[in-house]
């Protein structure tokens, strides 16, 4: 269901940009904030930047994209002593801020919240639930889709039920691994080498290891368990790594899907955290990817189906492997990287939608989507 964009009486729409957060992707969220702050339409939108520290403190931050851009030292939200408070009850949209000296002042009413938080405690339905409880409009996926897509194990189960091909996998918890190790080792070895060991609920390839020798399995599982209590051991799928971007349809229409992008990794075993954010020579992001027309249509069809299967709203990036047997969905990311050079905006730019226009589209969807 949709609701009309609220009448603001000619004033600018006020946006609370939520970034940083408690997850291991804190720095990437800050870089995303820099991209949004640098490109948002300042004639239409007034931004209130709310940075969440690694300890979970909500702070008022400067409206300065240079402060949070990617550089030699990764950006972060510093605790400056301010404390931003949400409304006390549903029906109000006023934010307040407590200064370090204890004085409290109003930040005014907020029309829409834009949570660009990656990973746990932000992309997993927690922030979405908090905003839902207070009746506050926000950009992106709701509680269910956010929680589902954050959990790779549950995502695979839902996609399988929808008839969508996913890579074979085995899910582990510390208890299962300790008590039924022999059984799970047999299941894992049946996947064949190489395998990927990854936390079920983490992003940006944090805690992910490519295992090419079974002697590497135990250390890889330990690394993944440091990030999450559920770990996936997943069969490697040979093929090209391709992705496409999805936007919610307007007025109840079908999801809109971009052209495809492709990741070509050079000099590394896979597209890991360093390749994504720290080593500019480790991978090429090619957009649009070279696909036959029929391949692109099929990829777009599967991406839209996956988005609908998790009851998506707002946006998502759907990641695939393309091999001899066709497309296999790797993951759905409900708050993908959003810097100007990230794959999600790049795919839309190649599809004819500029980065500033994409930000505007997402904010308008956030204002009109009823979850």
Describe the structure.
With 371 residues, the protein is α+β, with helices and mostly antiparallel strands. The protein folds into 3 domains: 13-139, 3-Layer(aba) Sandwich (Rossmann fold); 149-165 and 239-362, ATP-grasp fold, B domain (D-amino Acid Aminotransferase, Chain A, domain 1, 2-Layer Sandwich), CATH 3.30.470; 169-235, 2-Layer Sandwich (Dna Ligase, domain 1). Helices cover 30% and strands 25% of the residues. Strands 14-13-12-15-16 form a 5-stranded antiparallel β-sheet. A 4-stranded mixed β-sheet has the order 3-2-1-7, with helices on both faces. Strand 4 (83-85) and strand 5 (94-98) form a beta hairpin.
Essential attributes:
five-stranded antiparallel β-sheet, Dna Ligase, domain 1, about 375 residues, alpha+beta, single chain, Rossmann fold, globular, D-amino Acid Aminotransferase, Chain A, domain 1, four-stranded mixed β-sheet, 12 helices
Task: Summarize the entry for a quick read.
This protein is of the alpha+beta class and 371 residues long. The protein folds into 3 domains: 13-139, Rossmann fold (3-Layer(aba) Sandwich); 149-165 and 239-362, 2-Layer Sandwich (D-amino Acid Aminotransferase, Chain A, domain 1), CATH 3.30.470; 169-235, Dna Ligase, domain 1 (2-Layer Sandwich).
């Amino acid at each position: 269901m949709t609701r009309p964009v609220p009448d603001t009486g000619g004033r600018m729409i006020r946006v609370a940009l939520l970034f940083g957060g408690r997850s291991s992707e804190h720095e990437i969220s800050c870089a995303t904030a820099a991209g949004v702050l640098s490109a948002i339409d300042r004639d239409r939108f007034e931004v209130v930047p709310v940075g969440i520290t690694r300890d979970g403190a909500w702070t008022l931050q400067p409206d300065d994209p240079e402060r949070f851009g990617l550089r030699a030292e990764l950006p972060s939200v510093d605790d400056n002593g301010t404390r931003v408070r949400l409304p006390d009850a549903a029906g109000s949209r006023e934010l307040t801020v407590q200064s370090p000296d204890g004085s409290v002042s109003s930040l005014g009413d907020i029309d829409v919240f834009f949570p660009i938080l990656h990973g746990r405690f932000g992309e997993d339905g927690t922030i979405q639930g908090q905003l839902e409880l207070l009746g506050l409009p926000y950009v992106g996926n709701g509680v269910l889709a956010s929680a589902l897509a954050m959990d790779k194990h549950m995502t695979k189960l839902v996609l399988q039920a929808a008839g969508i091909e996913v890579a074979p996998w085995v899910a582990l918890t510390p208890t299962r691994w300790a008590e039924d190790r022999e059984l799970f080792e047999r299941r894992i070895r049946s996947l064949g080498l190489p395998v990927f060991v990854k936390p079920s609920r983490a992003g940006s390839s944090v805690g992910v290891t490519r295992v090419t020798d079974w002697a590497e399995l135990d250390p890889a599982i330990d690394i993944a368990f440091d990030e999450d209590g559920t770990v996936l051991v997943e069969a490697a799928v040979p093929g090209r790594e391709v992705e496409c971007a999805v936007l919610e349809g307007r007025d109840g229409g079908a999801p809109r899907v971009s052209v495809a992008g492709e990741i070509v990794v050079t000099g590394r075993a896979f597209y890991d955290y360093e390749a994504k954010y720290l080593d500019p020579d480790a991978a090429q992001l090619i957009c649009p990817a070279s696909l036959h027309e029929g391949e692109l249509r099929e990829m777009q069809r599967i991406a839209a189906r996956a988005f609908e299967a998790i009851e998506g709203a707002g946006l998502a990036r759907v990641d695939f492997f393309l091999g001899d047997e066709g497309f296999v969905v790797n993951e759905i990311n409900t708050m993908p990287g959003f810097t100007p050079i990230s794959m999600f905006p790049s795919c839309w730019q190649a599809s004819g939608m500029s980065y500033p226009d994409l930000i505007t589209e997402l904010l308008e969807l956030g204002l009109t989507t009823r979850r």
